[in-house]
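Here we describe the complex-level prediction in full. Unlike the single-chain runs in Section 2.1, the two entities below were treated as one system.
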Amino acid sequence: MAKVKLNVNGTDREVEVADDQPLLWVLRDELKLVGTKFGCGIAQCGACTVHLNGAPVRSCSVPAVAVAGQKITTIEGLAQNGVLTAVQKAWIDLDVPQCGYCQAGQIMAATALLRTNKNPSDSDIDNSMQNLCRCGTYVRIRAAIKSAAKTLNGSAT
Amino acid sequence: MNSVHDNEYYPDVVREQIRELERESMNFSALGAKSVSRRGFMQATAAVGGGMLLAFGLLGSEKAEAQQAGGGGGRPAGPPGPPFNPSAYVKIAPDGKITLYSKNPEIGQGIKTAFGVILAEELDAKWSDVIVEQAPINSAVYGAQFAGGSTSIPSAFMSLRQAGAGARAMLVAAAAQQWGVPASECTTSDSTVMHAASSRSLGYGALATAAAAAPVPAVTDLKLKDRKDWKLMGKRTTGVDNLKLVTGQPLFGVDMQLPNMKVAVFEKCPAVGGKVASANLDEIRKLPGVVDAFVLEGTNKVSEVMPGVAIVAENTWAAFSAKKKLKVTWDETNASKDSWTDFSNQAKEAAKGTGAQELRKAGDVDAALKSAKTTVEAFYTFGFISHANLEPQNTTAWYQKDPEGDKLEIWGSVQIPDGARQTAAAVCGVPQTRATMHQLRVGGGFGRRLMQEFVSEAALISKQAGGVPVKLMWTREDDMGHDWYRPGGFHAFKGGLDDKGKLVAWSGHAISFSDSTPGGNKRAVQGGGWPSPGEFPADYTPNYRLAQTLREFHIPCGPWRAPGSNTCAFLVQSFMHELSTAANRDHAEFLIETFSNKQPPAAGAPTGFGFGGGGLNPERAVATIKAAVERSGYGKPLPKGHYHGLAFHFSHQGHIAEVAEVSVTKDKKVKVHKMTVVGDIGPIVNLSGAENQVQGCVVDAISTMSQEIIIENGRPQQKNFDTYKLARMSHAPVVDVHFLNTDYPPTGVGEPAFPPAVPAICNAIYAATKHRIRTLPITREGFTVV
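The structure predicted for the assembly as a whole is:
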């Protein structure tokens, strides 16, 4: 067991964790931030995607002790003061979810993509969006990313 | 007869609903014609703190009848009846907030939104005033509550409309009384009652308390809206839980938290039927975070609790870590030894015969084949697949000792909550009246959560752990290794065409499995890949035979999205294309001609219960095929290297035609560029939700073309997404969805849009390569989807 300081959604948290305990299970079980989901445990599905210093990582395969002191953002930390991000809004406007289980991870992946690529092409989206959606909402995820990109680019000019 | 016909595709509750809907659809003439034939009842009560509550039920069930008798069917005329459950369907608060209760589980089919839309439409509520909540699980109030068989929309469509119209009528009556004007002069819109002549209006909130005391209208007096006046239905409405989903709020079974809750894991024999001989329990109990570890003998029924080892820990990671260190020696005396390799070899032998049992026969198939101008023979194979819900199976259960009778409380993500509750209570020896169930949002259904053994497991673990609340978490490996698989199977076809290329003979021989699991019923496995005896083209071929040969199978198989149909469409619609190709005919024309060739009912032939059977309307089938041909440009020139494939399938009261546009490289890489889907599912409730289901069905179909669970020595070999691949973003084609929006009764589309997709793609692959896909997954024939 080890004591670890994490900065989660802008707040410093200290938790006691097992040496090999993945970040996912610290977020879900210790910090009760359950928006980040468990799907496979082997970094295949992406349901557990969070941002580590702004970049997407699969939190089921990142030990918490390895990210001590670093900035972690979860789905709960995207909206600021109740104001949704352009990506979250696009997800609602285009009614992306079916069961919705993977969508937190999808939104985290899409948010990270749009941070590094303001205007992703279809093939950019194909290459960077590697999260599984069992319900098959990919058609809408693609449309929502493009819609969010438009909003973000519009507001930047 | 041990046949596919009486096979339990679905649990009883779902099957009964499907049968009822099929009966209704066969007697159907036009939308609304039978709308008031169902006997319903309404009850209104004042809400705590003001406002009104309106409940609505269909008569027919004993519980509902008893309730009505006791409650007086409205404002009590005599002594008050038993207290009415205050959360039946509609609650209107004085502040104008309208709460609608959605009775069935939300599994990603969008039912919570659709039910809200139907009610709000007839209530004439402003959508932004509406909150939709999951109704409590209470069969005495709501009747059957489940998500399965695409039955939620057709079974509830009319009753929800009546509930909305009833509430609206009472609000109007209250306003009319207050204003001293005839109710007939009042109109409604956006949660407001208006009287145009005197320019007066009142919001529903202001009227609700008075409306609760208004006479409850008889269901037969209700006037439902004309379709042309619909404001919400048929339009796009975003999901009612979407805000919670995109902000990561707790909704799902896995998100459940209780004070002092522990996390449990459960290890079962990798080959179904094995028992625990010994386990390193002492070692496990000493591991950090582990609270307890013990053997569960279980009930030795796969639908309840099979033997295994439970570990109870302080948190999920402690439980998962301990499970990795668990060493169990299994007694596999009675465990499955099933082998796909052996089955495949046996099936090829069996295919040489005509089948152990004849299920349906019309005309003289052998003579017709002999005299046919052209005959085609083919042997098809399809592997097992898993449901792979992204939310692994889980349940939170709390067994409590109590002097007044032990109690059980369950929180779960399931498809038949009351069934899960009843089974778990029985397994734990808790009186049914002392067991309660809370339905949580479901991270994917697909039929997997119609089977609910994990609920009983959680309950029994809570009991054996001494009454601590536990959340049972299956790992992904547990989930994929202990599924109720979509069974694999084999089908041998012979078909005959006359000199004009018309279908005159059809012989099918299904080689499938009987359910020989512990506690199984020895009948044909659930969701097996064979046509039901009424399946197309049974009623459209003068000389027809369907036979089956069953092998024992010891691993659970269960309903998987469009059970039966999901493989049947691949078999039938691929072979239909083989026939039209052999006759050198246009496939659309061949399909349409076959649908015009309806045969007189065969003597003694089953009337086609099932998922391709009752309710198939050839005119609706032809209309969807023609529309799909027109929208996709089927038969017209395409970009170089692109090819079309067409397929139609009827299931779950949905008539669906699909055209795939694909290209195939020399090294057999298949790219699906576009799918055109035309559906006749009656009127659309929520266009966004319906389109989403169709888009998802297409992607799911593409997924399954590469998926296989291979079973050897009783052990499913694929355990996670590294070896069992799901389609990703790059695989998803453009999906052009078009609904014919007819006046037939509505049906759900979460299932019927799936089956035609696979054969449409396979037929397109044939057009591109002249290679006929006769095996799923297509990787077995050297093809990959890119």
